[in-house]
Design goal:
Length: about 375
Amino acid sequence: MAESTRDTPDTPEHGLKLHGRLDQSEHFWRDHYQWLFEQGYELRSRYRPSWKPSWKGTKKPWDECTDGLYPLHNSAIDAQRRSDGELLMLKRTKKSLFPHETEIGLFFSTEPISGDPRNHCIPIYEILQVPDDDEIQIVVMPMLRVHDDPRFDTIGEAVEFFRQMFEGLQFMHSHNVAHRDVTFFNVMMDARELYIDRYHPCRPWRKLDLSANARHYTRTQKPVKYYLTDFGLSRKYKAEERPPQEPIIRGADKSAPEYKTTDACDPFPTDVYLLGNLIRENFTEVQLSPSETKRLGFQFMKPLVADMTHDDPSKRPTMDEVVERFETIRKGLSSSKLRARVVKAKDSPIAGFFRALSYWHRRVDFTVHGTPSIPTPAKPCSVL
């Protein structure tokens, strides 16, 4: 088991102002609480029309109560499936703004494509049409968490992350779908097996009841599967339409060179850039701000990442070429390199010392028991 990576809450600014009261963006969920309940999904108690804050009349702070916490995203919320208690994510989407989101999500969630192990698109369990607004749909999905929390323990764990993401984007491209928004928070993981304790969706470093930090294993102990999410900007083409020339639509990462030099581009090379830039910003060579910490030990990825982020889109490799080159890189890494600890440049000496102690204990155990240095992917989220 590894230590928790988060110690302090990240309360949204609006939460501090409202002190636990419902934000305007939450009124939709309150107004549809009963309808969602009838569809088989139960929201937290704060969205019940008759809700009374549990901290009222007590000395307990509102932000230490499960019904006081704000969702992490305005358009998405956690819910419990009534049939089995599984925690899920409900996402509100507007057809006129994102006309292709549910179509593409369902395409990758339908057999035989959904059962392909190369498929790393978040599975969609159900699409709910809101009864009082033809424009709004609710997408029901598994509860995922950001791909790098908890932190990567070994180089081999990160190598498996790279492999799965290269494979996932290659799979999308092989079906003529461009993602168009491959950014940090759209790359998630299924952490159900990774965590010993169920964690709270709004404070994922805490237990579901907020009583303590949620305990977890390392990815080597409990391998995970990573997913590409959010198809709001994605587009699907016919094979004969490639390469397409699409008007520029900027997602969260607006740094692609073609965004600054043209009004239209082929989104497939831009996808390659976006995934390469994600790795560059978080693993290889970007100068980070004083508040951020850079991971060390990933120099072996620099040549491939440099080609993926080439200023000229025509000179970037395709995802087929990326996968092929990465496989050569992966096979060239020694077992000792793969088992090496992921160190951050700004880790404090004291924290680094204790992390190193627990790491070496795990490493000896893994070596003795022959645990693979590159984790085998976990069982994927099923499509209901």
